[in-house]
Fold:
Amino acid sequence: MLASKRILLIIGGGIAAFKSLDLIRRLRERGAQVTPVLTKAGAEFVTPLSVSALAGQKVFRDLFDLTDESEMGHIELSRSADLIVVAPATADLMAKMVGGHADDLASTLLLATDTPVLIAPAMNVRMWEHRATRRNRATLDADGIMSVGPNEGDMACGDYGPGRMAEPLEIVAAIEAALVDGPMKGKRVLVTSGPTHEPIDPVRYIANRSSGAQGTALARALSALGAEVVFVTGPADVPPPEGVQVVRVQTAQQMLEAVQAAMPVDAAIFAAAVADWRVAKESTSKMKKTKGGLPKLDFAENPDILATVSQLQKHRPRLVVGFAAETDDVVENATVKRKRKGCDWIVANDVSAGTGIMGGIENDITLISEEGVEDWPRMAKDQVAARLAERIAKALT
Ligand code: C5P
Structure:
């Protein structure tokens, strides 16, 4: 898929730069040509020699390198690639992109280009969560800059949280997804998937039987059509697809926050089986069996994520799709649900015991929209996903 694709790789100055060496190797293994650009700060973390040795090409470093200007001007350099990848994208590089700076080779290339750009942010968690970086992320998103990561985890500086650069293979998958040409190219789509786990105490939780299979298949199908997919998933049985941005959550409240952080999107597909209720007061220690009495659990209502997004005044996605897993009067209930929640389509299915749908590999759906009710034949969840993705692509053109 990456054979003979030309990637201009800008390596910024962060500890994650060492992972970019592996990224170069992985890209070349897949047949891509990698032209490396190393910022001054980047060269503090990896040597130009290792970068050029792995890339099999000279590494570009200086805006005012006259030899480079005569061989290939910075305008041409920026436009001769199929994709520009910035990894690691530091807070400073992101700010420069937002401000349109052109005071070194990397920022000048990014300003001069008309090639799609994918960034892999990497920075300390406080820098990532700072209001300035948040604003910059939103602006870059709105400018159509694609991004992968960052991931959450231990940081080189000893902190914990989001800010670690995505792993090389995740960046490769995002590059592959970015280079796919399809009807969804340039469209950003959110997919929720899997169950949620609502804690009772540190060891117990309320869950449901959702495997995440249908949401995962949909995210994969949308990505295959060229969409940039943000995949917000509860603890599902099936692994998330490659090449999409994965945000893992446990509870409905966390899912809502992740969904809000992913906005704006062109379409939002809510395939998750979100728990309607949570335990009002999670016990901080394990609840004990007591003689002569059962524990009493009080419940609180979870936020309805689908309804919240459907009713957004600002940045409502152009298409909002909900799912309705029902056991009785499927079409009637789903039709009422579409109106009540305010979404555009409802994908309804019968999950009664014996249908084998919840947790199974097939699905039997009815698509309900303003235009009417469409009964689809029973088919594999992958096929349902492919057909739905095509319909979504059509609706967004
Ligand atoms: O009301 P019900 O749970 O049947 O609605 C199902 C649809 O609403 C699904 O698309 C599901 O992902 C979404 N939902 C949600 N937040 C909730 C409950 C359901 O997004 N709290």
Summary: The chain has 14 helices and 21 strands. Residues 144 and 186 are 8 Å apart (CA to CA). The chain has a mean pLDDT of 92. The pocket of cytidine-5'-monophosphate is lined by residues 192, 252, 270, 272, 274, 276, 302-306, 322-324 (CB under 6 Å).
